[in-house]
Queue: 2 jobs
Job 1
Amino acid sequence: MSQVAYLPVGKREQTKAANRRSILDAAREVFGELGYESATVRDIIRRTGLSVGAFYNYYRSKEEVFEALADDGARRFRPLLRAAYETADGFETYVRGAIQAYFDFLADEHENWQARRPAGERQPHTHVQTPEMAAVFDEIRDALAEVMERGDAPRVDPDYLAVACIAISREIGERMLQRRPLDTRAAADFAVGMIMGGVAALPRLYAD
Amino acid sequence: MSQVAYLPVGKREQTKAANRRSILDAAREVFGELGYESATVRDIIRRTGLSVGAFYNYYRSKEEVFEALADDGARRFRPLLRAAYETADGFETYVRGAIQAYFDFLADEHENWQARRPAGERQPHTHVQTPEMAAVFDEIRDALAEVMERGDAPRVDPDYLAVACIAISREIGERMLQRRPLDTRAAADFAVGMIMGGVAALPRLYAD
DNA sequence: CTCTGATCGTGACGCGGCGTCAGATTCGAG
DNA sequence: CTCGAATCTGACGCCGCGTCACGATCAGAG
């Protein structure tokens, strides 16, 4: 029974990975229960059973844990986004696929661990800047540009377009979560309609 | 030279108002220079010359000062919004007026006291929930509903619509501030186009 | 003007969260 | 088994926060 070749071989590597996960899980719970503001680094640490010093071997602050959480979310969402891109056969199907995927994702995450916090609270899926988030932004902008190039839609300022699409999705998504019954489909219909109509009416980049 | 009848008559009232202003001004500067996160209640207090205790007679925390700042912004913006409503003679002119007003307002505030902070920073004009902010939201939603009723635009879910319009304006506005040269007109063209086209294509509330 | 209660200002103080670091412990290569 | 490096531990000092007992100032009554 020597050296069962798992992914992280050494014992050190294993506990390291486990601790990272443990901290992230604890943080999710704590932020969910106490909210970001009033949560304490020590609150998170307590749930992990680690010592204070050990925690600081992994993350330098509460903020950094929060970012890691957001980054994690973005990382899990990315494949869904990519799938939407690859499945799509035009501008509208891409937008629809991406938004429906996002709203379902949102609903899922919300169910799972967001123990009903007051609205307007800081949430990992919004307004934090992390590398993975930036990557998602770029991916969306490029996909939009790419799909526009194919002639399915008029060419407009891709940066503003991406910003607007994300803004609509984010805010409609958040509003959606507060409504009962939860209807991701209706919300998606709204967001997609807004974007599709909007693009058609937008000032063109190269008047031709 | 006795009792020149100013607006706040008593000396007490005067210094009270002066202190409130002083704190808000100091807070603007401090947040502008240090950023919200790393700014300290004491930093603000130091700039006012007040004592610690005196500060706490006016605001209970850094957060509360920040909200007061946001509230103040909303309060100054409201008349401009109202003017846009009263000047408008239809859906498009209202949307255009409101957005142009907002972007000009944004540009102004930015010039004045926002000593170029890293992007994504917490800013009083975004994502804070204050009574005055909520009032602005309601005003926009009602104005949109009202204008829709007049038949200038198809009727759609007013809540989602208001959320979407505000989201677009907010995010395009923020992006606009990062571009050189600063072009509020172009940004407004984009946002208005997006909204106008979007509304036309939206799922109707009462299919008729 | 004086007196008096009330309001407001002052700053030292205690509390609590933060991040560190010297020492202990555990791992794993040789 | 040995030893150096990686990791863990938790007591410690620091710093910002909000309070509160006390003093100063004001406004109104007499």
Job 2
Amino acid sequence: MTEGPTITTIAQRAGVSIASVSRVLNGLPTREDTVRRVMRAADELGYVPNSVARSLRNRRTDQIAFAMADIGNPVYVAMVREIQPLLKAAGYRLLIHSTDGEAEDELGVLRGLRERYVDGLIISPLRGVTEEHVEAIVAARAPVVVIGALPDDMPEGALVDNVRTDSRAGVRLALDHLHTIGRRRIGFLNGPLDTVPGAARAAAYREALEALGLPYDEDLVEVGDFYRDSGARAARALLSRVPGVDALMCANDLIALGALDVLREQGRDVPGDVAVVGMDDTDLASVTWPTLTSVSLGSAERGRAAAGLLLDRLQNGPREPRVSVVRPSLTVRGSTTLPPASPGGAR
Amino acid sequence: MTEGPTITTIAQRAGVSIASVSRVLNGLPTREDTVRRVMRAADELGYVPNSVARSLRNRRTDQIAFAMADIGNPVYVAMVREIQPLLKAAGYRLLIHSTDGEAEDELGVLRGLRERYVDGLIISPLRGVTEEHVEAIVAARAPVVVIGALPDDMPEGALVDNVRTDSRAGVRLALDHLHTIGRRRIGFLNGPLDTVPGAARAAAYREALEALGLPYDEDLVEVGDFYRDSGARAARALLSRVPGVDALMCANDLIALGALDVLREQGRDVPGDVAVVGMDDTDLASVTWPTLTSVSLGSAERGRAAAGLLLDRLQNGPREPRVSVVRPSLTVRGSTTLPPASPGGAR
DNA sequence: CATCCGGCCGTAAACGTTTACAGATCGTTG
DNA sequence: CAACGATCTGTAAACGTTTACGGCCGGATG
């Protein structure tokens, strides 16, 4: 009993061949009597099939990986929360890769697909899909779902689907809202321009201003990182350069937190003096004071869509690549409404 | 090329046996000439070893699972964040199981160990380790680290280590602090008593009061769930029953959020009228206003310790079970100090 | 020149399954 | 009673590795 029982052990004890054991355990038609004997032996031995051997033979692992920049980021947590139960229900286990947003790590995961330790992959590359990403996806020969932008010139036959959000539309929602409540000098605190979201949001900000008939003024724009302290620095810089700013559009909720810190520190009323809007609509938005108006980019929906596309491919075989676009929405809270509403509901 | 190359393909192309190929790829001593031929063939074919076949042969998967109640809970996120890089550095992949705190799911994961799809498991059972858990751990014959309480009568030879925190000491830290700043009517908002943390914190609250020479008054205690809205309900109930309460000890940060909501709604000053302390010291604590004083139970440290113990066992083989205890600490923020400090640093 | 030794290498078995194929067993039918 | 067909079962191969073992070849030694 030092090594667990195998079908061979069962076969001996039940006095049948290993083929019969396998058939019984897999529910293939077998004589009543044989079934009983095998089941009995299996029970007595406490047999559990070895999943590795099964995987080798069946050429499938029943495992799926999810690769993202940082599991500490609430956006990815929201995705995992949706992905996990869907996969579980379909009989798949979930592996997690935190890549720190390093392209090298992302490529490592993609190339790793060739080791066949998973049946499929959901990946959210932080800085976009490069030539090398594409190569690795094609070489993988395992289905991949990319969350984020995907080049439109993907090679034929790449087993890849795509889930994206429309962050342009998201920024527009926010600026429309700020315009509606009477704000005209709307600052913009962005993240790095060499990230996909950063670049998209920068362009969207310009477009949205134009659509509203407001002038684009580069004094109103600060570029930093997607973190709270960076948001605080950016807010401080912008406020001292343009004291008359009456709204701050922030490229994510963490930046918005930093902005709120600075506004409070400087005694400016939110939203009375300055309205603030975040993006991603994370759990944090309902915790701050005032609570934070934020553009939801549908993290949960994106997670769900990605899992759905991957499972579909795994279950129904090859088909044309699909793209699923998640529409953003605006959740209005205290940081843009007077008087501040009472805080949001439960997490 | 429809199916990837295997060592057999390489062997043919290089004109050697599969044994030689394997030896070269594993860096075993081989004649210079053979090495070159094999390497060349492997390169040209773009060979990648099949990890499943390797696992079957080597009887190890290089995978480790982490099972916890809910990946949405910041405490577990903090653990995963520490565990993942440690495992990765040691060459292991990480699987995630969200059990919803259902004992059935936890047992499913433990029993699943017998399928040998992972080399080890870190598990944090929400409602404690039952008789059945113990059985499954023993039967698993794979190393397990339990984060949380573990019965002291574990059977010999169970491959299990233990990481725990001293939540009694944590509660004491908090109450000492509240006492020091002059609070004498300290309410307690707890989670369910049939969870391990809930029960421990209830007992600790009584003890700590006693140590401080304060009377235990059951009117000052509310029991709910570990969520924000439940915390709000509990706070409302307690405040109306005992209007003169001057501090609220909350069994976790989410409950504290709910309490802050209610205090603000009722126009009571924090910490002037009522001081508030949370537990877990999650990221949320530095986001609220005022920022939340909170007892850190060292989630990150516990994650790190768990990964360390598991890796040690995997790398150095059997040894006596170990217990690692993480000391709690108190992070004082605005919800207990006058005047409220400026908000905390970056997340 | 025969012997021995050391270094490489190939054959084959093993890890634990699933499944194609052929053989065995049974009942049914002409 | 022989022949047949339908069921069931066992043998063996396959999935892609790693590795024990023995054979072969070379050079060095007596």
